[in-house]
Amino acid sequence: MSESVTIKVPARLHLGFLDIPRSGQDRFGSVGLPIQDIETVLTISRATDIHIHGEEQARIAQHIATLCAHLGIKTPHRVSVQRAIPRHIGLGSGTQIAIAVAAGLRTLHALPLDTAQDAVLLGRGSRSGIGIAAFEEGGVIVDAGKGFGQQAPTVISRIPFPEAWRIILVLDTATQGMHGEAEIEAFRTLPPFPAATSALICRHVLMSIMPALVEQDLASFGRAVEAIQTEIGTYFSPAQGGVFTSRLVEATLHRLVKAGAVGIGQSSWGPTGFAFAASQADAERIVGEIGGRSPGTAIQIVAGRNAGAEITHTALNLARA
């Protein structure tokens, strides 16, 4: 068998910004976590010509060209994408495909990993560092944005997500979240983010989310997440048409709350929404109580992920997690 490297990179939930810069002196900040069962999986090997199979071909070709030029690699490559996180639904597909390609290429050519620098090189991590940080380790991650002279956002906390808890994802099967030039324009035209709102969000993170994770207090965790999401959703509502991008997702989330879920919100620009439950059985009960998905939506129950990406190098028979 020829030498190859397979990368498995998890999707991530973005639970909210801590701040949005009002000037060049301010920093973004974020809280979020990687999740199980939704992931990008690709295999890369040397080849005589460039071959890319599966989803995200254009992105992958561009990333490989950029990385090879940066690293001085002349060899063509074959890339096979087995699974890809769906694009523009709020689960971090762009960052994860970029760092998967970078890690695969570096591992194949026996170069040390440099996840943060590669992500920046490939145009990722300009606002949130959750996806980059989730490649290395899992858990609930808090980043404080980029410091002066820093290339990637600084991770200031990681706390394991309770193994029993579950996340109920609600997906809109016909809508995408804002992205590209529309996203850039939204940040450009929205009013300054109130400093008082940032202070409130930071208090929710420090005094509620973080201790609730350590204490495994789902109710307190859920209240804090929902409070943050209300502030963030209200701020972005002029750009996305409401607190939630998708009315279908919003309606389903409120039904989940009535059935016992907590901590509803929207990941990034959506349209994917989420809620939390105490266990797999509780999540299944809640979903069953609302009668399952509504037309135009899909529901998936997932666990949080307390580990980073997986790298398997066949030539070395080496598995890293």
UniProtKB/TrEMBL annotation:
Keyword entries, A-Z: Kinase, Transferase
Domain GHMP kinase N-terminal: from-to ranges: 64-137
Any GO molecular function: ATP binding
Domain GHMP kinase C-terminal stretches: 210-289
Transmembrane regions: none
InterPro entries (UniProt xref): GHMP_kinase_C_dom (IPR013750), GHMP_kinase_N_dom (IPR006204), RFAP_synthase (IPR004422), Ribosomal_Su5_D2-typ_SF (IPR020568), Ribsml_uS5_D2-typ_fold_subgr (IPR014721)
A Pfam family the protein falls into: GHMP_kinases_C
PANTHER family in the cross-refs: BETA-RIBOFURANOSYLPHENOL 5'-PHOSPHATE SYNTHASE, HOMOSERINE/4-DIPHOSPHOCYTIDYL-2-C-METHYL-D-ERYTHRITOL KINASE
Name of protein: GHMP kinase
Organism: Phyllobacterium sophorae
